[in-house]
Amino acid sequence: MSIAPQQPSALRQRFRPLGWLAIGYVLIGMLTRIALLFMAGGGVPLNPLYWMYAFGVGLVYDLITFVYIAWPLVLFLWLMPQRAYLSRAGQWALYLLAAVLLCWLMFVGASELVFWGEFGTRFNFIAVDYLVYTTEVIGNIRESYPIGTWLALLALATVVIVWLSKRGLRASDSGTGFLQRGKVVLVWLVLTVITAVAVKGTYKDHSDNAYVNELAGNGVYEFVAAFRSSHLDYARFYRTQPQEQAFPRVRELMKTPEATYISNDPQDLTREIRHAGPEQHLNVVLISVESLSADFLKEFGNKKDITPNLDALTSQSLFFDNLYANGTRTVRGLEALSLSVPPTPGDSIVKAHNNENLFSVANVFNDRGYQSDFVYGGYGYFDNMNYFFSHNGYHTVDRNDIAKGETIHHENVWGVADEDLYTLALKQMDSASAAGKPFFLHIMTTSNHRPFTVPANRVPQKDGTREAAVAYTDWSIADFIKRARSKPYFDNTVFVITADHCASSAGRTSVPINRYHIPLWIYAPKYIAPQRVTRQMSQIDIMPTVLGLLNFSYRSRFFGADIFQLEPGRERAFPATYEKLGYLRGEALSILKPQRLFEQVRPNFDNGDAVPNTPIDEGQVDDAAAYYQTAAYLFKSGLMRKRADDSTPVQPAAADPTAPVGMQ
């Protein structure tokens, strides 16, 4: 008797557990989406159309992702011989595999809630990046959350769900052969290839609300997509123009009154910067503070009084209140402050290959006999910091340089408390001063980072909260300046205090401009008169501005400008994510995206919302493309490297009595 008519039924029996997993995964996706919707709060207006879009498109992405995550079960159901599959051991093997997959999927869902709470998005490039640094990331999770309790609850939930739904996992096979089952696997493979080629993560981004677009995605899918796009080649994925147009355009955009190009080569951005008067070889201490958003300050409307010392410092400093960060990661801030370049898509230059011997801020100081140090309270292998800085003119100092027995007031997985970091920095400053050398220190803090644990008896806020971490950041900076004030070199030291990025990057738009707003103080009471600067400014302008205040005359290939030399109306900033490249000029924000797409909006600087800019300023979009295209090209081609003639002395300009700001 032929069994051919029974074969479809037999195949359905054999592969029925796939239906069990599909139902479970769709339910997990729906519940995760509901939880994230509540976490988004007012970020998603009470609009049923938004909800329908998020859950409808989200279901499609969940089903597409299911094709990928079901492969372990597909292979099990294909490869298990009938006798082994129907045995007691085979049944328990099926239960075990189903339990492992279910537990993993629920763990991913729970992880998404944690990630969303921190970054306001589905998994993205940050999650991919963190895979490299499991010690810090796992340590941070353990110090921030009751991970043991959560894992126990997930395991218990898995056992209960598998037990209650075991009928859907009952091993059944009325007669299928290996090759017959292979036809199902072949179909599954075809579906996998088709969806991988035909579907992109960006297809969901058609809502005008960034939160809704994120909700419509799938965490696993977004993670894989971010992994695939971690090394985005600008010329391949973004809007470009011919090199013979892009470079002259950038040369024109970078012209300032005190700068002169040294050659007519359109791809050579080297300028001679000439400042009036003798150079002031003062010490410079640059503090890039972890996650110091401008809106933590009373100056920008904060009512919690968590930064009293920094608020007081505002009236004693050259204070800039319209400054925008390059990105949402520490490495982007370090890149901007050390290299003065727009961000490249994908990996930061700090983490990229072939990032040695680049033209850096330290080079300018080193040519003048400075001791240039990068000082970090954690272990500098994280994010490739020690490698990058040690190969670009800096001496690196980190947690390893704190000797056993030295006082450590507090530490967590990220490093020692800020006050102990500043003690380490003061040792470097003392050493350089004793050797008769001026010093340039770039200090990177860590305390204002989850798990937000701080030393006891420093601030009144509850330990483990963002408010406590910000308040402690404020206290430790004031304590550092107080300790430095007792040093003989204090009067000859310029303190530059800013942020690497904001505390949150989430918003309803793709590049919420309020999430890039950071403060800047330049404090040197003997030399720099207090002043409030309201002009728009980019993070890449900070160090060229400091060099200008020091009256340095030097050769530069920085993309940043001395804000006091840049004519009013020419200000611009480069707020970006790892794949969306922003160019802010005046009231318009142009955003370049992969697939050579772009948008242009008029942002609300208070809440980050935006409306389309109509009509589109095509010239500004071309300016944005020219900046990013040339920066990416120069790095990729090795033209950002330090050259022998970069150290050529530059004669100062004649004194200008009308200069608006400078050394007293």
UniProtKB/TrEMBL annotation:
It is found in: Cell membrane. It is a multi-pass membrane protein. Residues 283-551 form the Sulfatase N-terminal domain. Coiled coil: none annotated. One of its GO terms (molecular function) is transferase activity. This is LTA synthase family protein. The keyword tRNA processing does not apply. The chain crosses the membrane at residues 20-44, 50-80, 92-116, 147-164, 185-203. SUPFAM superfamilies: Alkaline phosphatase-like. Pfam families: Sulfatase (PF00884). Its EC number is 2.7.8.-. Keywords: Cell membrane, Membrane, Transferase, Transmembrane, Transmembrane helix.
